[in-house]
Amino acid sequence: MNDQANSVEQRFEAAAPAELSSWNRHDTTWMLGLFGTAIGAGTLFLPINAGLGGFWPLVILALLAFPMTFYAHRGLTRFVLSGREGADITDVVEQHFGIKAGALITLLYFFAIFPILLIYSVGLTNTVASFLEHQLHIMPPPRALLSFVLILGLLAVVRCGEQVIVKAMSLMVYPFIVALLFLAVYLIPHWNGGILTTASQVPAPSALLHTLWLAIPVMVFSFNHSPIISAFAVDQKRRYGVHADERSSQILSRAHLLMVVMVLFFVFSCVLTLSPEQLAEAKAQNLSILSYLANHFSNPTIAFAAPLIAFVAISKSFLGHYIGASEGLKGLIVKSGKRPGAKALDRIVAAFMLVVCWIVATLNPSILGMIETIGGPVIAAILFLMPMYAIRKVPAMARYRGQMSNVFVTAVGLVAISALIYSLTA
């Protein structure tokens, strides 16, 4: 077993796989950790992007949200579980598809997730600087110092190990859920049926399909938590052994149910408050829904709470994506032929992440959104298509063949990838 697998083993408590017992605190922690990775800053733009399509596309997307996200992430979890004990996603790809394919997928996996980590570094710095200046009326420190302190603080949590990261994210989820609920309920008296004005206007089938085609990637990536799935699967296999698939499916289903209910309530509350013209104005101004609502109502409570909610959202998503990015970078280092010890490998990766995230956050480049969009098709391919291909080709996953959910996941994956590529070339 290679050093990378050994380092993964050392992070988790050494214990024999447990029998499948009743739901416990460990399962709740992972459920909230998955929620925390998926539901981040993107959620604050989802009402704008999803609501602009009109009433009927939004209803259809709401109905598709749970199966789209649950079946895809369950497939990726099963793919990691199909590997040997302690193997993460980069090892499992190599085990099933060979050394060359493993190196290629590891490279793509890293470059799909790492740019998102950079975007969160920029977003976190901008959010805190704006909060200090506009809400607390304090002149923020130099951007280089502020970004360094913020990223170093998050990496201090990272250095405590994956289990501490997941626990920290699960704790951060509670205020985020409360904040989303508060905002959604706060808006109820202001509902004016904004999007319902389009309910009587049933779009032509071709227009409806075109709207759904372009909107599906938005919904998919608003609930995406693929960067943490590998660590999740490794921990479930170590803890539950042969029962890992059953328990991980239970955790995933509850996590996705929580995601869909919470986020869709927030989305519908926002779009019932704002008119389609106002949603278009928010998109044109490149504002999150919180910022637009704060300006719309001139409410000091929302104006003060919005950056705090964004800070929590970005921080927990940063932690979740760090797990995937560091996993990919470690895989690249190991597959390059270098075999540093587990502690040395951790230090190398942490130092690289700190320096690059700090430099990018300080420079604040605008090209990062384009990088994220380019990484989208790669994430969709790894999340949707690779596990379905493995089910057809890998003997260890043969028992999952013949399920209708496989066809559904493959179709959604192809739609998401084609829509993302079209958006880039249009």
UniProtKB/TrEMBL annotation:
The chain crosses the membrane at residues 30-48, 54-72, 104-124, 144-161, 173-191, 211-234, 255-274, 302-323, 344-361, 367-386, 407-425. Its main location: membrane. It is a multi-pass membrane protein. It catalyses: L-serine(in) + H(+)(in) = L-serine(out) + H(+)(out). Keywords: Amino-acid transport, Cell inner membrane, Cell membrane, Membrane, Symport, Transmembrane, Transmembrane helix, Transport. It is found in: Cell inner membrane. PANTHER family: SERINE TRANSPORTER, SERINE TRANSPORTER SDAC. This is HAAAP family serine/threonine permease. It comes from Pseudomonas fitomaticsae.
